[in-house]
From TrEMBL:
Its main location: membrane. GO terms for molecular function: transmembrane transporter activity. InterPro entries: MFS, MFS_dom, MFS_Efflux_Transporters, MFS_trans_sf. This is Transmembrane efflux protein. The keyword ATP-binding does not apply. It comes from the Bacteria. Gene3D superfamilies: MFS general substrate transporter like domains. Pfam families: MFS_1.
Amino acid sequence: MPLALLALAVGAFGIGTTEFVMMGLLPDVAADLGISIPSAGHLVSAYALGVVIGAPLLAALTARMSRRAVLIGLMVLFVAGNALSAFAPDEHYLLAARFLSGLPHGAFFGVGAVVATTLVAPERKARSVSLMFLGLTVANIAGVPAATLMGQHLGWRATFLGVGAIGLAAIASLALLVPRDATPAPAAGLRGEVAALRSLPVWLALGTTVAGFGALFAAYSYITPMLTDAAGYAETSVTLLLALFGVGATIGNLLGGRLADHAMRGTLFGGLLALVAVLFAFPLLMRTPATAALAVALLGTAAFVTGSPLQLMVMEKAAAAPSLASSANQAAFNLANAGGAWIGGLALAAGFGTTSPALAGALLAVLGLGVAAVAHAVDHRRAVPAGGRERLVASGTPTAAERVPN
């Protein structure tokens, strides 16, 4: 494994920690700033809004810069946002600081995924992306619990200073380990990057991300009431069970990366089918504590098997200018977060039961399968024209598509 992938994983670890730690710190932040917990919940939304806006915007604005310089600059912005969060005097300043912290999130993962694939042989591209995302999944196992514990004992401001320190470590790692000559400025520039988003296959891949991960968040957003009301767990046990989700996500991420290097589209379809099965089984699995714990782990595994193939598919469909499309995939992931939570909430509000968000998620996963099937049909039609003879579609990375079976 190239050490540069470790530098990318360190950055992903810091970003994953700051994204999810706010959920555990909401009571402490609300009490310290004298606001209600629902008002403090806007801090989560502010970060997500920063991700959605920052992912395509920063990728477009930095299109002609060296990708190594872009990654370092994004982490500088990340450190600044977390430092400002630590010293925010009131709710409004903290909202602005959280928005600023979210801006580099999507662009870092998008540009980082492009860089990761340049560091390895073509047949290991998906694995390289999964190793970068490993930082994000490990953050759910170790980073978020440790940062939450720090906030509870030293104050929530200390948490953001600690996350800022992780960002500084990532900056140093990127500067030392990412080779300069491996990350030149893209030739396409801003116009070429924007043109990449006009491709129907790119939009179908992004649509698969929204539906597939929307399925995950429809269920995961309401996992606590499922575990307490349906499975009978005490609220004090939920944190440990959520760590099981992180373990499952880590396993799924590594498995998906390895499998996608052999059959990218097959891995995507397999992961979505597994997600459908797990979510439809949730009402049964939530009946006992043991099977509920298994369900949480399986949910993480099934969902994150699709992460690397989806990211790589977007990059290959926009092969001539992948940075903006890759970053847009991260924006799609956060749209899935918001949309999935909203759809799961509708199922609860309609009175369909505690586990109904999982069934709503299963329907979203079926929709994701449908979009992926349409994408496959479009690719097949482009590869095999009316005459019946297969043709080669030009790509910005020659032979990239041929090396990764679909």
